[in-house]
Structure prediction request, 336 residues.
Amino acid sequence: MNQKERNLEKVKRIRKKTYSVEDYVTGILNNNNVILSKAITLIESTLPEHQNLSQQIIEKCLPYAGNSMRIGITGIPGVGKSTFIETFGNYITSLGKKLCVLAIDPSSEQGKGSILGDKTRMEELSNNTSAFIRPSPTGGNLGGVARKTREIIILCEAAGYDTVLIETVGVGQSETVVSSMVDYFMLLMLAGTGDELQGIKRGIMEMADTIVFTKADGNNILRAKLAKTQFENALHYFPPKKSEWTPTVTIVSALENRGIEDTWNWVKKYFDTIKNNKYYFQNRKNQTIKWLHETIIEKLKSDFYTKNKHKIKELEQKAINEEITPYIAANTLFDN
Ligand code: GDP
Prediction:
């Protein structure tokens, strides 16, 4: 075989491994997790050709998406999220459902290493054939991670996953991002730390549809029961939700497998309620519109900065030298 023939062989080998849009879509619709994972990797890639391919795949999967219960789960590090998701997730699949677990990790954005991804998490659920777990997409800003996660949800739903859990760490902006892509929001809290009501930002608490007190076992049971009563009383003073849902409280021990069914029953009841009163459909429409506008803003911003890169550098210097105010400097960019 001469060099030319060897090169040709190489190209053939590479081509063989390359999937077409149709290959991806068929694989996803047939619930082939290997293909699904590869397609998700394309979404996460920054290469323009991968982006292009992933957009075509997403578009073709879109008609098959939208049919899952999208559930957000948040809580501070150590509250017991991964242990809860493991037990809750295994319970959900035992009902014959197909579960997908995704994560939005704000720490990965800041290059600090990941809060969610560092440990070996959810080992049992990882081996559950009815579950698909994918760590948080890394790189880029929170907006970028949010876009990727929304696109990943579409592919997972097209692959037949009917329950999607999106986990995030309760430390800042990421809850708002998650709540803009889920139907239902769960806040995990620890009872008995004495500062339940202060420890978590009120805004996050107001987003919660169910508050789950974790680790309700051993010495913690009594504290958890007390916290449940306190919260059930306090939640009445919260502003009414557009969904007309009054938030509920459960106490759970993921380690001892207690309170899990109770928590799932609230999820079911919630979805029945919001489908009956149509909030489910309206909320999804609003989320889609919001996603569109966020994309427009993101694109405008990146195009504008790319186009005016040098001019902005000059203006920065002028502003530092106090030759011009930042306000006027910014305005000069829009003058023509
Ligand atoms: P995450 O950081 O929120 O994901 O929290 P983890 O799930 O990693 O749990 C943090 C710690 O709490 C671990 O040591 C767990 O074993 C422990 N933990 C989690 N759930 C329970 C529970 O139901 N009962 C008890 N006693 N400990 C738990």
Notes: The chain has 16 helices and seven strands. The two ends are 62 Å apart (CA to CA).
